[in-house]
Amino acid sequence: MIGTGIWQTLGWILLLFAAALALPIVVALASGDYGVARAFLPSLALAGFVGASCVLSLGGGEGLVASRQGAAVVVVSLAVLPPVAALPFLLSGVVPNFVDAYFEAVSGLTTTGATVLRHLSDVPHAVLFWRALLEWLGGFGAIVFAGAFLVPLFFPGLPVHQVPLPPAAGEMVQQRLERMAEIVWPVYVVLTIGSWMALWMSGVDSFEGLCLAMSGIATGGFMPRDGTLAAFGDPWVSPIMAATTLLGALNFFQHVHTGRTRELPHLRDGETQVVVGAAVLGAVLFAASVARGDPYGLAVLMSDGFMLALSSGFSAGSDPLVGLVPTVIVLGTALTGGAMISTAGGFKLIRLMVLLRLGASELARLSHPHRAHAARLAGHTVESRLATSVWSYFFVLLASHGILLLTLTGLGMEFEPALTAAVATLTNTGAPLVYLQGEHAYAGLGRVAKLVLCGAMIAGRVEFLALLAVLNPAYWRR
């Protein structure tokens, strides 16, 4: 049975979510969209009522130790929040049915950036703001949950990811989340405001700049207007968004360290170097795969490849250049992702670093079988539990892609779009299917396919091992 500590924590999350729902109401009232403002009230009331009920009715219950059952908070949160977040899309009339509303909400909270909305120029400002806010909240949650629960559970013995405040003995789920949020939120807010100011100085409207900044730091892909970043008409918008995406995809504990000490540990951090290198490689592969001689075309391709490697769905071009990039390069780039404690999705490159070190250790063992060849990373030996966790994740990742591919083809999708959709949702990138089939690729899918992809987006964001652990009865008996 799930302990009361998880429900207490979920209650506080719902109360904070209710407070967040007040923000688009303010935007709607400021825009004179009183009908749209009313569309947010049921979600606010529902989140507030259920959250207060969980907190008040279970306030005296016994909490759960974070290191044991904290991963369940991640799974339960992403099961409960999307239906609440979906109601404003439906009640405002932006989407015709609940499935589309649910898809949009899941895509936002998982920072996937896949959208079913058409003609964004007709969408009320409050709804556009809500989409961006969902991605911003989803990115913040991804950092907090990863640092508080997922890394201690599934990346044991990896000092490069040590939490600035080590776990306290017997610490409860809610306490752990509070401490992590206190560490991260100042940096997260400052980076968002910095991106917003840079976009505003480049000539972007303040409202649209805020939406872009919130989506960018979350490595999402929701646009506040139709088209790509080129629609804003300023050449600086794309570089600013690329820099914002990069900051969101790096280890946020490195950002926290910089804020506290005014030092730049990123320069000597191995994971940061690999993330930046992968993004640059993505840019080079995109540019090299399409014969394009003009500087504008090369810049667009490199920008798109750079941001996709960081699991962002933004595109820089005014023409469908990226559609000319071979699908295998697009999918390989989307799989990379960013740092483990970041807003990025994807494979997470620290896992690739571990796999490479394990592979090198095994090759050395074959050459010199009588010597000790322990795999080392960041100056420390890779523990057997960490190696098992990484190999398990790799196997589950492949199996998940295979199962999702078979499911989508069974629903009538062609092989290439089905494979692209599987990678795009499981890695929380969203963009690859848009590259293949156009801006409204997700809007044209059937309702069952959309629900299947919603499950894929949630599975990709909560981490496959965490999801399997929570679904395993033995996890609750430990």
3D architecture notes:
With 478 residues, the protein is an all-alpha fold. It has a domain at 380-477. It is built from 19 helices and two strands. It has helices at residues 4-31, 34-57, 66-91, 98-109, 125-154, 173-201, 206-217, 237-249, 252-261, 270-289, 295-309, 327-334, 349-367, 384-410, 415-426, 431-437, 447-462, 464-471, 473-477; strands at 376-377, 380-381. The chain has a two-stranded antiparallel sheet. Strand 1 (376-377) and strand 2 form a beta hairpin. Helix 3 packs across helix 4 (98-109) and helix 3 (66-91) runs antiparallel to helix 5. It is globular and about 75 Å long. The two termini are 12 Å apart. The model has no long low-confidence stretch (mean pLDDT 86).
The computed structural class is mainly alpha
- The tally of strands reads 2
- Write down the overall geometry: globular
Q: Which runs of at least 5 residues are low in confidence (pLDDT < 50)? A: none
Rg value: 22 Å
Mean pLDDT: 86
Order of secondary-structure elements: HHHHHHHHHHHHHEEHHHHHH
Distance between the termini: 12 Å
Major sheet summary line: 2 strands, antiparallel
Helix content: 55-70%
Beta-strand content? under 5%
Overview features:
single chain, mainly alpha, two-stranded antiparallel sheet, globular
